[in-house]
Automatic annotation (TrEMBL):
Keywords, comma-separated and alphabetical: Isomerase, RNA-binding
Gene Ontology cellular-component terms listed: cytosol
Residue ranges annotated for the RNA-binding S4 domain, each copy included: 7-67
Name by which UniProt lists this protein: Pseudouridine synthase
Amino acid sequence: MAAKERQRLDRVLAHMGFGTRKMIKKLIKEKRVQVNGRPAEDPGLHVIPGRDYIEVNGEPLVYEEYIYLMLNKPQGVLSATEDRYAKVVVDLLPPRYRAFHPFPVGRLDKDAEGLLLLTNDGELAHRLLSPKKHVSKMYYAVVDGIVTETDVEAFRQGIILNDGYRTMPGELTILHSGTESEVELTIYEGKYHQVKRMFEAVSKRVIYLKRIAMGPLRLDELLRPGEYRELTEEEIIKLRELL
């Protein structure tokens, strides 16, 4: 989406990941930045991104106001933008994307992996996380304990958690039942550690958890843990249709 208001040239270039203000000033001094076919001379030059034609090192600048990234979050990484002690999901991105200041939409436990949407579109994130929207989240889990049809029915009715809260109905599908069971679970809210707490309420323990879908988004099977890609235009449209 192109921004329509005037902005400083150095701010636009910083937003697009071309480095610090000092680095951008050097680019301009070396006449490696052109605006509308002429070398830029002032970092404070006001431009309209998406309307003014900007080139850096001979390459046209395609301005984006928002970015939308699908990340396959690996285990051991926090769903946060910063932390004093632990690695966070934003650390997995190159400077080009970090320059947009993206943040995770919702959370995945530190020991969980799978689909995580990263964006700087605050309005979209707010609406996707709104309790009123009931956006679905689908998980694959390995559970210590035999999962039965009784559990399936209990999840369908809604589970009473350890704090007395009754969850919305969940859709539990048994893929394999044994001393370690494999299941898929779809829920429509996002309480703290909800999947783990739901299974604890029926005397089971989650030993592996992976989110495989969120609303219309399904985790790209080609993404290995720690890898990411930009959403397609079709995926972005489907997300906005939820709103």
